[in-house]
Amino acid sequence: MDINHKNFELSFEIFPPRNLKASFKLWRTIEVLDKLNPNFISVTYGAGGSTRDLTQSAVSVIAKEYNIDVAGHLTCVGSSKKEVIDIALEYEKVGAKKIVALRGDLPMDHGNRINDTDSFSSSVELIASLKKNTSFELYVAAYPNVHPNAQSEKSDLDTLKAKFDAGADSAITQFFYEKEDFLRFRDKCNSVGIHQNIIPGILPIDNWIKTKKFANRCGIIAPQWMNKAYENYKNNEDHNLLSQALCTEMCDELIQEGVSSLHFYTLNDPKLTQKVCEALGRKSCPTNIKKVA
Question: What is the 3-state secondary structure (H, E, C) of the chain?
Fold first, then answer.
């Protein structure tokens, strides 16, 4: 496949390391990703704020020691309004210019809503407060296959529109299996008056079984042809070649359909992501990264 796309932006998601070994792996991952000249790298935030300190630390290191824009994830579940804004201001203090603003996963014993009057009631309220109190570029989540807790597809789109009306700048989608999932979703967004940038979230599949199990929990059902394809390529080398080919083809077709940005879920392993990006025409280049001790 001879592809040479040059005018598209890349961004990558990583999660914060929990121990020294994971830290070394992450910093090696970032060194690889940085060579692809990303627009930014985002750092996830655990359910209920469970990785709050780890996320803050990773955002600080990336912002201070790496020549990369960083976006800290920020959720409103499990924290007071003051705590959330304080975290955002800490991101700002260390040099982060972007935030991925999310409601976050509810604790298992919390039911399906947020009741604490001292907390943000929704991601929409969080976004409005961030817009008022900070100068961040704000990214939000979008769901081509509909959020599993949404009452309907219409209510899910209404929520996304409310996020933009509250001040969001761009949205990053949950991953999807086929380009048509994203293109249909983009058309539906346009039909309800959403014309801001919708960035497709891309997951290069390094483990088909695990990916399918996770996707099923999110209500994302794999197409039958993809099940059959991976059944025929079970050893690691063939599996990865198939994943690289499928992901590259989908990204190429998305760019041809006018997509200008791609956001890769790396799972802290850059190998497949790097191969896909290079296959699309983004060549690795030297960086000016400071070495992290």
Answer: CCCCCCCCEEEEEECCCCCHHHHHHHHHHHHHHHCCCCCEEEECCCHHHCCHHHHHHHHHHHHHHCCCCEEEEEECCCCCHHHHHHHHHHHHHHCCCEEEEECCCCCCCCCCCCCCCCCCCCHHHHHHHHHHHCCCEEEEEECCCCCCCCCCHHHHHHHHHHHHHHCCCEEEECCCCCHHHHHHHHHHHHHCCCCCEEECEECCCCCHHHHHHHHHHCCCCCCHHHHHHHHCCCCHHHHHHHHHHHHHHHHHHHHHCCCCEEEEECCCCCHHHHHHHHHCCCCCCCCCCCCCC
Termini Cα distance of the chain: 40
Reported as a single tens digit per residue, the pLDDT across 31-60 is 999 999 999 999 998 765 567 788 999 999
Residue 138 token pair: 């704000």
Q: How far apart are CA 207 and CA 65, in angstroms?
A: 32
CA 238, chain centre distance (Å): 27
Residue bearing tokens 């090696």: 28
Query: Considering the entire predicted model, what is its pTM?
Result: 0.92
Residue 117 or residue 167, greater confidence: 167
Vertex 227: Cα angle to 223 and 232 (nearest 5): 145
Class of domain 9-279: alpha beta
Task: Give me the residue spans of the domains in the chain.
Answer: 9-279
- 40-43 β-sheet, strand order: 197-199, 170-173, 137-142, 98-102, 70-75, 40-43, 9-14, 261-265, 201-202
Q: Identify residue 189 by its one-letter amino acid code.
A: C
Which are the catalytic amino acids?
A: 13
